[in-house]
Amino acid sequence: MPEILKKNKTAPSIAINRIALYILLFFGVFDTARLFTPLPSYVGYLKEICIFFLFFQLLIKKIEFKSKSFYGKAFLLLFFISGLCLLRAIFFSNYHSSELIIFQVKGLEFFLIFLIFINLHKIVPTTSLDKVIKIYIVLSIVLVAVNFIGVLIPNPICYKYVGRGDNSMMFTGRMSLGQPAMATFPILLTFILFWMKKERNTFNNAIIFISLISIILSTAMTAYAIVGCVIFIKFCADMKSIKEIKNNIFFIFAMLIIAIIGYRVVISYLSQDASILNFDFLKDRFFKMMGYGDYEDVARLMRTQFREIILQKIYSENAFIFGLGPDYYHQIRTDFYAQIPIENTYIDFYAKSGLLGLASFGLLIIASLKYFSKNNHFNFHNSQFLLVVGILTAMLLYSWTLPIFATYCMAFGFALFFAYFYRENKEKNV
Fold it and tell me: How many structural domains comprise the chain?
């Protein structure tokens, strides 16, 4: 009888925790699309509330984490540095603003979500990490439809001109709600997950096909580079099997042809605004990325100039070791640049915490590769190892174009897969 009463007593709290978990999962996939709905912007803070609600429970229940391992030390070091950035923003900044504090808090979310996921059995014992990943995959495929409908089909729920989706936020020639890198990120991770499988069935190939077509139509250039890298990695892994290589080449070639035809069909018959699917625009951007043509990407040019200004500021003040502080973008504010951190994780860490922060980020990448691949011995014929390499490749490349730790959908996606790798390694060592 006491056990039954205990179960009934704890059930409501578990149910609340499960709801909080699903809220995090929902935002982890649809956070960018949310901006193009009638929902007010402050709804987005619901995910932060849920993160800290679950994390504080973990503090009470005691967090399980191998802090003495190489990965554990690298993780805690970067976590500590990110925490110091928050304290510097609160107590030592000359440019106090709510946006500055919020950005530093967001920089901690990857670490908190990771710890929540590896201790999920303590706070949401009714939901496994495998189930969370399955839901994440399903929602990512739903996101493909959301992006497609939200760009092409007028509706009052989620559409390019609803909410904050005005003309200034539309990205010419791109099939995505908002910045393509963020709007297709969960789809990209789903593509990597299924592409790296050693054996694939019709269902797996269908997921790969849907994901890749969506990424191509979004014109997220960094995602193109990541897709190219993971395809190349898989080709190298299949070098001993000529049949596998031929099948993969045929598969990729067929999808590219279908994507090009699909572009033309949508432009001709479905799109009310040809600029939304401007194939010539996509072609110009792609050739410029490859070093040809005279097209100029204004956003990329601004980021390059912003990066040079930041580095010059660091050199002029000899702030190599500890950086300029988390308010660096306020210190170099000009009429040309907005008061936002640079869209580059490496420069962001270097600017706010110096070589210490930058080296710690690099150490986390190295430690992750070593620790998550511990039982695979860097075996390129092992699907798990290929998946680890694919996810870390995405992290390395996207870190050059976005502040991944302050971008919730990316922080969530990377934390989810890091937790999955961590658990797999832990179970194999039991």
Answer: 1
Q: What is the DSSP letter of 69?
A: S
Alpha-carbon dihedral 189, 194, 197, 199, rounded to 10 degrees: 180
Whole-angstrom Cα distance, residue 172 to residue 175?
9
In a domain, 273, yes or no: yes
Q: What is the pLDDT of residues 161-175, one digit of tens each?
A: 887 655 544 556 677
**3, part of any domain:** no
Q: Alpha-carbon torsion 235, 240, 244, 246, what sign? A: positive
Contacts of 104 (CB under 8 A, 6+ apart): 82, 85, 86, 89, 326
Per residue in 283-341, pLDDT (tens digit) is: 676 666 666 666 666 667 778 888 888 899 999 888 889 989 999 888 876 655 557 78
7 in any annotated domain: no
Q: How does pLDDT run across 249-288, given as a tens digit for each residue?
A: 777 777 777 766 766 666 565 555 555 556 666 667 666 6
Helices 70-91 and 109-118 cross at an angle (nearest 10°) of 140
The span from the CA of 430 to the CA of 427, in Å, is 5
Q: Is 1 strand, coil or helix?
A: coil
At 207, the amino acid letter reads I
Number of residues that this document lists for the chain? 430
User: Do 266 and 152 contact (CB within 8 A), yes or no?
Assistant: yes
Distances (CA, A) of 371 to 66, 71, 239, 428: 11, 6, 26, 12
Compute the distance between CA of residue 142 and CA of residue 26 in angstroms, rounded to an integer: 11
Domain of residue 167: give its range.
13-428
pLDDT at 168 (0 to 100): 46
**pTM of the shown model:** 0.89
Question: Can you tell me the distance from the alpha carbon of 223 to that of 371, in angstroms, rounded to the nearest whole number?
Answer: 26
Distance CA 26, CA 141 (A): 13
Q: What is the mean pLDDT of residues 114-141?
A: 95
Please state, as a whole number, how many other Cβ atoms lie within 10 Å of the Cβ of residue 226: 25
Please state, in angstroms and rounded to a whole number, the distance separating the CA atoms of residues 81 and 53: 22
Q: What's the rounded Cα separation, in Å, for the pair 118 and 115? A: 5
Token digits of residue 234: 């898989």
> Would you state the structure tokens that stand for residue 372, as one six-digit string?
């998550």
Q: Is residue 4 part of a domain?
A: no
Residue 166 CA to chain centroid, in angstroms? 24
